[in-house]
Specification:
Strand content: 15-25%
Shape: globular
Strand order of the largest sheet: 3-2-1-4-5-6-11
CATH architecture of the largest domain: 3-Layer(aba) Sandwich
Radius of gyration: 20 Å
Low-confidence stretches: none
Mean pLDDT: 93
Helix content: 25-40%
Distance between the termini: 42 Å
Number of strands: 13
Number of helices: 12
CATH superfamily of the largest domain: NAD(P)-binding Rossmann-like Domain
Length: about 350
């Protein structure tokens, strides 16, 4: 039986990954700052759930000992796999206004410094680090129709946010520990993972969930805001495809990444909004808001990120012979109806 440690398992991707691996008869320990997962029951997705702050090196030292590992010298019984998904993050309102930059960089960098240090000490057999598409240079993403997110273009580095800079710094931490201490790593750059069981309100939700929620909350013949001119482009990867990609990547023997995990189905933000509207029986008008109008209403600069971003999956296809199978129309529909169910439950 594989012994698995999932850091950040109380979150969206971590929880879904834990649920998948638990069904494959793995022994799962989750560590997350949240007291519990908002949707999964503990017995459904893990064997042990520890609530704690991974910025604390003493906690990280304790939780990296597997249930059968007697000491740091007991290499045979260490965790077979560690998934490092923990980070201080959220949607555009949280990441790109500049108001949370110091907390984001401090928390996430501390977590990763603690994690690599203990991974070496405890002889972890393989560790997965979830980086982000936010590492790519802003100058490669100015044209919404032709963004360049090929893995090799990350240098010269110039991410558009401090979140991206921290992710790139942490990639280098893992690569350095791989070179100097032979830490067996896998680094993936996620591109907008979405689906049911994720955050859908409160300011930290990602744009697919935010669009679905706005449609649900908007009355018939009403309108809702889309930040920016709506011509910004993005791609979105459904959670099941993401889990399949992670599994494929972790099963490789000689490729460590970094590699993109995302979809190449690029849409504008207005197209995403229209798609979400199509799942309702409402007539809703999209109101794009930007510039001075946005600032006058919200009190901060409109946080839209780069003009264009799309996953380049050529390297993943080459190394893993796999590509996503779930189109945005199908995945977003499932997400919409799940959020509708949550909203109806909440209103009751």
């Amino acid at each position: 039986m594989k012994k698995i440690l999932i850091l950040g398992g109380g979150g969206f991707i971590g929880g879904a990954l834990a649920n998948r691996l638990k069904k494959e008869d793995c022994w799962i320990r989750i560590v997350d700052i949240k007291k519990k997962h908002p949707y999964w029951k503990t017995e459904e997705f893990c064997d042990e759930y520890i609530s704690g702050d991974l910025r604390n090196p003493n906690l990280v030292s304790q939780i990296f000992l597997s249930p059968t590992q007697k000491s740091e010298k007991d290499k045979e019984n260490s965790f077979d796999e560690v998934y490092q998904l923990a980070a201080d993050m959220g949607g555009a309102e949280y990441l790109f206004t500049g108001e949370n930059d110091a907390d984001i960089m401090h928390a996430s960098a501390l977590i990763n410094l603690n994690v690599v240090n203990e991974a070496v000490k405890k002889s972890i057999k393989k560790i997965f680090y979830s980086s982000s598409a936010c590492v790519y240079p802003e100058h490669n993403q100015l044209d919404p129709n032709n963004p360049n997110c090929k893995e090799s273009t990350v240098y010269p580095a110039f991410p558009d946010s401090e979140y991206g800079w921290e992710k790139l710094f942490s990639e280098r931490i893992y690569l350095a520990y791989h070179r100097n201490y032979n830490l067996n790593i896998r680094i993936a750059r996620f591109h907008n993972i979405y689906g049911p069981m994720g955050t859908w309100s409160g300011g930290k939700e990602k744009v697919p969930a935010a669009m679905c929620r706005k449609v649900i909350e908007t009355q018939d013949n009403g309108e809702f805001e889309v930040w920016g001119n709506g011509k910004q482009t993005r791609s979105f990867l459904y959670i099941e495809d993401c889990l399949n990609a992670i599994t494929k990547f972790m099963d490789t023997e000689d490729f460590i990444g970094p590699v993109n995990i995302g979809s190449e189905e690029m849409v504008t933000i207005n197209m995403l909004a229209q798609l979400a509207i199509s799942y309702s029986d409402k007539k809703i008008t999209i109101k794009n808001i930007q510039g001075k109008d946005f600032y006058n209403k919200h009190g901060f600069k409109c946080p839209i990120g780069v003009n264009g971003r799309n996953s380049d999956n050529a390297l993943f296809k080459e190394k893993m012979e796999w590509e996503p199978t779930i189109p945005l129309s199908e995945g977003l529909k499932k997400t919409y109806h799940w959020i509708l169910e949550q909203q109806n439950t909440y209103l009751k």
